[in-house]
Amino acid sequence: MGNKQTTFTEEQLEAYQDCTFFTRKEILRLHARYRELAPHLVPLDYTNNPDIKVPMTLIVTMPELKENPFRERIVETFSEDGQGNLSFSDFIDMFSALCEASPRELKTIYAFKIYDFNRDNFICKEDLEKTLNKLTKGELTPEEVTLVCDKAIEEADLDGDNKLSFADFENMISKAPDFLRYRHLFCYVFIF
Amino acid sequence: RRGNRRQAGGRGGVKGRGRGKKPASDDDDDEDDEEEDEAPRGRRGANRKKLAKKRGGNDDEDESEDEPPKRKRGGAANKKKGGKAQDKETKGKKGDGKGKGKGKGKDDDKDKKKKKKKGDSSSDSNSNSSEEEESMSEGEMARLMEEVEEKKKLIANIRNKPWRMQRRLKLLKEAQEFVDKFEGALGKGKGRKWYAYKVMMTKKWIKFQRDFENFRTACIPWERKIKEVESHFGSSVASYFIFLRWMYGMNLVLFGFTFGLVVIPEVLMGLPYGSIPRKTVPRAEQDTAQDYSVLMDFNGYCKYSVLFYGYYNDQRTVGVLKFRLPLSYLMVGIGTFGYSLMLVIRTMAKNADVGGGDGEDSDFTFAWKMFTSWDYLIGNAETADNKYASITTSFKESIVDEQENQKDENIHLRRFLRVLANFLITCSLGGSGYLIYFVVKRSQEFATRDDLSWYEKNEMEIVMSLLGLVCPPLFETIAELEDYHPRIALKWQLGRIFALFLGNLYTFLFALFDEVNTKLEEEQSIKNASIWAMKEYYANYSRLMNDSEATPPPMDPADVIRGPCWETAVGIEFVKLTVSDIQVSYLTILIGDFARAVIVRFLNYCWCWDLEAGFPSYGEFDISGNVLGLVFNQGMIWMGAFYAPGLVGINVLRLLSSMYYQCWAVMATNVPHERVFKASKSNNFYMGLLLLVLFLSLLPVVYTIMTLPPSFDCGPFSGKDKMFDIIMETIDLDLPAFMGTLFSYAANPGLIIPAVLLMVLAIYYLNSVSEAYQNSNMELKKKMKMARDEEKNRRNNADTTNQVMKDLEDLLPNRSLIPPAPPEPGQNYILMIALTFKA
Fold first, then answer.
1. DSSP B514-569
2. Which residues in chain B have their CB less than 8 angstroms from residue A128's CB?
3. Which run of H or of E encompasses B670?
4. Which of A72, B68, B306, B817 has the smallest CB count inside 10 Å?
5. If you count DSSP H runs as helices and E runs as strands, how many of each does chain A have, helices first?
6. What are the residue boundaries of the EF-hand domain, all occurrences included (chain A) (predicted)?
């Protein structure tokens, strides 16, 4: 990287490229973005893997996440401590899962986790209600919410336990027609 | 210690992770992962379990690392294999006691080994491995190879695993180390160096591929720009820009062909300007040839330049390379169409492939809306607000649909409205068609008269632009009646305006052919005059010199009498049209969008009503108009490129500037549509329109090439009866004789008609095959749906389907003794009944 200070060793970059869907340029760019969030916290030099975490309140101010109704859930899901504090690895992991190149299976898994608000490995009615309220900014009446949630569960629930397991979710998502092409489950524009 | 444990777990990661850990765990990765997360928290204290986990985790890895020596001791290869198979079975069945026991025994052994190993340094493992290498039987090698392959697969797929990054990095490192360590050992039997070389090359190749991929993605232009537009305006607007980019790519290739094979050879190797009449501005025009207004009309020096057909010489070959320019000219002209056709059709096929099933399948209306309606690309507050609103409304719509469950009267009303709308639009289309026809007829009448007023002269243009101005909004208003989804409405709108524009095209071509025909009539007399003038010149010369022997100096090329050269005239017509089109569309954006936005934005402070929310407001991006503009522009290029090779260059510039200009304009001056809607899955509708235009523009060009005689004194085909004679000439002169006969056979109607028949049959056959596939596809879909319903019913309403069982149960005595039904009733009925009987 010329006369600039090295952020990552060659080895780290290769490893990150193996583990994510990013090119080295994008990884460096992501690091810069990460650093932008908390310049006083994040060092430029990452060669010795410092253990640093950026809190959720800073992460959600990124333009990619700012408008997303599920931003807190997304960040929480990808943070290793479950509180929404992201280390750089978590950060890059998040964007890797969200980027265009990541396969549908992976996205489905993470989507399931995100929509599973109470982390019980099922999307139950409460989760659906939360999702719906976030999506519509609470503009639907309670009766409507109940109706929609019931209908959604009725449609997607295969095993009749009145909540969606991952298998149900995957089955439902896999049948969504423009799921991948228009990336309506997950994906971000990088406004690099 | 912990690190070691992790490591151990890590090495086994491929398979051993989830499966070995907890026998009852489900197979899916997600749960595995969840457990993984819980593991450190919940089960730290439980030592026994930890041990078990470790064993499970070790299962695979130990096999790979520690077993080879052990197995070596054991000897027989097949026995090992058996052991391994059993091991795998254990993993597969998860709870099999016997297998587990065996595995445990082994594991203990391994653990001991592990401990021993832990004490040693890594050099030990090295020596260990070298020891292995010395005496590795074939079975071991195969197994190791398998192992290495597995690790490699893991390395390749690690990014697809839903694991935490830390874990991924660790596993990656382990796997890489493992591969590095053992890969070299494998090729011992047949030349290690070769194997090492191969490994190295594979690595290099992978690296190269990665670099190439990086490079390739970096090469796609405007990706970010388009994404930005998409994030603000939704995919429907972005689809226009994607289409524009695609168009740019295609035109770039056409540009390469035309300039590389026609223009540049002519410039480099052809005769220079001023050497022959066709390359010289005539004497009469020379004074004004450099005037700005003349040049803007593409007359003067522009007309006698390499941009137009007339400039090209009919020399069979040019330059030292003996480049056959006329042949190349014709071939490029035809190749342009061939390439475009192929590209359009290929793209359409590819898009159709991506498309897959339609969204009509409404099994999951609400679930899909719930989980997939948020467009994750949105990064702008305004768009986000719109999206929230549109999601809410769409939910509300669905709710209403669900509640009302499709009332009949609504459908009838809607059907009636749709029919009415179509009727109205057909009427207005027919009306404008008749108007165009009428105006064209009148203009023919006017052509014979001289005393025309300004209106009468420009009547046709005025009517055409008025129609173009009035009709699209009219159609849009009428389309409100139909109340289609905006995506479908867009398609209808596109189709209708397309039909209207066809009238434009028709009048334009009509006028053009009129012009060509008059020029062709003129040409004969001019040709005679030209020959006569030449003779006169020579006669005068010899009379003046009084010397019939002396060869006169050639006439000054500027003085030679020229034919009208209809090809160049056509070319100029197309170039003019394209340029004016560019001007008009750019001005429209500047005035209609930019000026409007400025006014609305700044006059809003001092106006009686809210300009932003009220009447003028900001403009929306007109998708249908822009797409059709692009399509028809491309039609002009296709038609004109044969007569004006420079047109392709102009078009490339136009598309390039248009990309930046429109991107800027849309971001700066437009607001997102009220209902931000998803574009259809493919751009195939646009492509279909393009294909239609391509076909339409192919017709006149082919007609002129095949039937009209080329001008006698300009262009690469001058002196020939027909343009395609150049091919005959090449066949006769340049190819061996038998090729000529071969071609004459091939051109025999007796051969062509069967060939055409065969093609028709092939098309018919393929068509019916595709239809059959479609049918079976539908059938399968139906079956799937049925299966799903059935399954759902079975699971959902186990009580009702098992009515007989239920009745049976009811009849049983001592019902109070039956324990309450477990949550999964279906499987347990029989058991329960058996129990009851026992009781």
1. HHHHHHHHHHHHHHHHHHHHHHHHHHHHHHHHT-SSSPPPPPPTTTS-----HHHH
2. 370
3. strand B670-671
4. B817
5. 10, 2
6. 103-138, 144-179
C-beta atoms of A172 and B379 within 8 A: no
Distance from CA of A55 to the nearest CA of B (A): 18
Counts of helices then strands in chain B (DSSP H, E)? 31, 2
CB-based contact B258:B334 (threshold 8 Å): no
The β-bridge partners of B323 are B318
Which residue of A68, A132, A177 is in closest CB contact with B376? A68
How far away is chain A from the Cα of B408, in angstroms, using its nearest Cα? Answer: 23
- At A54, is the secondary structure helix, strand, or coil? strand
B186 pLDDT exceeds 70?
A: no
Query: How remote is the C-alpha of A50 from its chain's centroid?
Result: 23
Say what the pTM is.
0.63
B-chain residues near A93 (CB < 8 A): 164-165, 168
Domain extents in chain B = 141-219, 223-357+370-409+483-716, 720-747, 752-803
More confident residue, B306 or B50: B306
Q: Max alpha carbon distance in chain A (Å)?
A: 63
Counted across chains A and B, CB pairs separated by less than 8 A come out at: 200
Q: pLDDT of B598-609, one tens digit each?
A: 988 888 888 887
pLDDT of residue B416: 87
Nearest to A19 among B168, B372, B823 (CB): B168
Mean pLDDT computed over B618-644: 90
Q: pLDDT digit string (tens) for B339-380? A: 999 999 999 888 876 544 444 445 677 777 777 777 676 667
Residue with tokens 């980027």: A99
Give, for B620, the enclosing helix (H) or strand (E).
Answer: strand B619-620
Of B388, B679, B788, the CB nearest to A136: B388
Q: What confidence score (pLDDT) does residue B549 get? A: 61
